[in-house]
Amino acid sequence: MFGLALHTSTPELGLSISDFDAVDRHQTWNLGRDLSSQLHALLQDFLVPQHWQDLGFIAVCIGPGGFTGTRIGVATARTLAQQLDVPLFGISALAAVAYQTARLSKIDPDRPDIAVTMPAKRGAVYGGMYRWSGETLVSTFEDTVLAAHDWDLKQAQWPQPLVQVRLDAGMGLAKTTPALLKLGHSQAQTGKEASWRDVTPFYGQHPVNV
């Protein structure tokens, strides 16, 4: 079974495909305003030599991130999942960062939680906390947007030690697309139903329909 991941929450495009055995490819492009016009052609070329029918699931970054890019990625993934009749998993950009941090830093299970911070508008920040078990990533504080002071206070009062990861305006997030794919694969293995209808962008407020 192949899985495909799309990350479009910044001006960069990230794509990743794997059968979680012999095939594992990923690539990023810095497209800026050309994301919407180039996404479909790059996606089609990237898929080769696999075929659409090889896909067993799709994972997509739901944000937080740029409004337009996130919306385009989610809409594209929803359309593909609907047409191919495969599960679609919406994965947080902050969760993908936490997963990559846990794997690269080799954080021991039952050790510090990972707090991920990303700038939002008007002095606010996006924040989320995650715990790494050694195999799976669990959210311990749901992604939210709040004043930077309130987020700092939340971290200071957190009962667990924290590994803090601070991002610069979300740039470079496309490199976490393989982590996005692995998180989708973990959900796929649970056998949990994942309809494209349930995947919506996250902008730090109420979900937005696409």
Description:
This protein is α/β, with parallel strands linked by helices. The protein has 2 domains: 2-92 and 172-198, 2-Layer Sandwich (Nucleotidyltransferase, domain 5); 93-166, 2-Layer Sandwich (Nucleotidyltransferase, domain 5). Helices cover 31% and strands 30% of the residues. The protein is built from 5 helices and 9 strands; from the N terminus they run E-E-E-H-E-H-E-H-E-E-E-H-E-H. Helix 3 crosses helix 5 (177-189).
Quick description:
With 210 residues, the chain is an alpha/beta fold. Helices cover 31% and strands 30% of the residues. The chain is built from five helices and nine strands.
| DSSP E strands, number | 9
What is the makeup of the main sheet?
5 strands, mixed
Instruction: Sketch the topology as an H/E string, one letter per element.
Output: EEEHEHEHEEEHEH
Radius of gyration, in Å, reads: 16 Å
**Intertermini distance:** 28 Å
Name given to the CATH homologous superfamily of the largest domain:
ATPase, nucleotide binding domain
Q: How many domains, as an integer? A: 2
The proportion of residues in beta strands is: 25-35%
Shape: globular
Strand order of the largest sheet: 3-2-1-4-5
Share of residues in helices? 25-40%
CATH architecture of the largest domain: 2-Layer Sandwich
CATH topology of the largest domain: Nucleotidyltransferase, domain 5
Question: Counting H and I runs of at least 4 residues, what is the number of helices?
Answer: 5
Provide the residue-averaged pLDDT. Answer: 90
The low-pLDDT segments are 206-210
**By helix and strand content, what is the structural category?**
alpha/beta
> According to CATH, what is the class of the largest domain?
Alpha Beta
